[in-house]
Structure prediction request, 626 residues.
Amino acid sequence: MPSADPTLSAAPLLQVKGLTIRFGELTAVDGISFQLAAGETLAVVGESGSGKSVSALALTRLLPPPPACRLGGEIRLGDRDILKLDEPMLHKIRGKEIAYIFQEPSSSLNPLFTIGSQIGEAIRLHRPDVKDPVAEIVRVLDLVGIRDPEKRHRDYPHQLSGGMQQRVMIAMALVCQPKILVADEPTTALDVTIQAQIIDLLRDLKKKLGMSVLMITHNFGIVHGFADRVIVMFRGKIVEEGPTEVVLRNPQHPYTKALISCIPRLGQRQERLVTIDYSTLAP
Amino acid sequence: MFSEITRQQFRRFRSIRRAWVSFWILVVVYVVSLFSEHVANDRPLVMRYGGNTFFPTLKFYSAETFGGRYRTEADYLALEKTPEFLAQGGWMLFPVIKSDPLRSYLKEDGSPPLAPSARHWLGTDDSARDVAARLLYGFRTSMTFALVLAVLSAVMGIIVGGIQGYAGGWVDLAGQRLIEVWSALPFLYVVILIGSIYGQTFGVLLFVFLLFEWIGLSYYMRGEFYRLKHQTFTQAAQALGAGSFRILYRHILPNAMVPVITLFPFMLIGGISALTSLDFLGFGLPPPTPSWGEMLQQGLKYLYAPWLAFSSVIALFSTLLLASFVGEGARAAFDPRSSNAIR
Ligand SMILES: Nc1ncnc2c1ncn2[C@@H]1O[C@H](COP(=O)(O)OP(=O)(O)O)[C@@H](O)[C@H]1O
Ligand SMILES: [Mg+2]
Prediction:
């Protein structure tokens, strides 16, 4: 259930206004606006290719530099406009204020270094004042539910399962105590049972640490009970937005209805997978 | 220090017996050749004279020291046989090969090239210089040359290819065109030209070889850096706020070392054979430097003295063969794409 009341904080933590992302001729994201309050969890839902990932990466300008990729609009983080910052400033924001978890935990870790050493890298980058990095590494590994962290932090990525690797990625993101955690389809590459564990973990951590979460997914099933608000993206545009309960119960846009009908329900046997009829959706 | 994967690769390399044995033979022979002065020399390692002990391979002693007339270096081979020396109860312990690579041993009977004998195991060349001694010193020269060349060109190849692959875009494109033009320069002319202006010294030759040798590896590094730049873990590091430098040396470079390791033995082979052929043609290191190319050439010139051709060809052939066994094994052990067919 909603963990914090977003209306309590006055100015939103993050405010995106008319964000446009172009790759050459292709407009991947077309003037989207949304905001994220402190402690709020926002889900961005949309099918593959609808521009969710590039929007998330744009938040700290992790996209190729122009002319390959051009950004327009405004991204306000506190009193700064991300699109106007220089590289050194962006390095301070990445990881420290906005941290990411990606879809593929198995390839998100450098195969040549221990997981402890990679979490240590994050500490070195953003928290140089930490006296005992190993203790801190053990602490975050414990926080994300890795058993026996005193021993496991010396493991190499390939010695861990996919779910464990994703926990390590979460630990790496959390060790710098970011204000916003962006999770880009963090469970898509995992088994269903592991998916549920990771979602539970994220829900716990969000409550414990009080950070804002931007959860990107193509699966409405994850959103329920996790996000305060939902944004639905379709072909680079926001087609629907609102509190999770409202959107789930009473979707307005036909695309949202189609996505929601894709959620498999317990005890209900589905004869066929629902397919989306694009001819009725074309803008 | 080394990751589990790297250690596993080293273990795999060790398990490929032929490569592992070849590697150690080359290492041992090279280390021995580094001490050539104490292995092949006509100065004794230790000598006793007039109640004192001398170490002529380590230190210069003039002929005066041993009752001679001149200040020039003592001729120990002659001294050993003088009645005074023997009367003093002196003795000398010579290195395994009792010859200097640069000295002519003309006094012995016959006209050079002299056939193998107890005195000169592999015979002498046309200037009556000991072939065994020259082979050993020649090995040291070739191997040192090839090693320095391979290391420097690897560094250059990594830097150039790395910049191209990482930066991409017009940097990559311009670099690629420049390299194409550069590699079209006729190597032999450049060597002859620069050699005739600045002299054919070790340093000049190394420099000229280096101008071209790095190109091959730079292609591989360009590809590796490009591939690794787009790996998720590189992007994850970027999302964590790591700068370009940190990403390059921690996430990309260590993961890009496989081609360097697997190509290194083949770069050594290239260096040795290139220097040898240049020496053979007479554009390499100037005489009287002991060199395998020059010995090969003599072998061709004096076909009636087969020990010349045989010893240099066998030495060159076995060195290159051992190095390619190492290379083959390194590729099997380190390159994830190659199967483990080679054993
Ligand atoms: N680096 C890139 N260069 C060109 N096009 C890109 C690049 N990254 C993403 N795109 C395009 O942007 C669109 C949105 O992609 P993305 O945000 O990854 O979708 P998703 O919603 O599945 O995360 C897609 O059409 C994709 O082809
Ligand atoms: Mg995506």
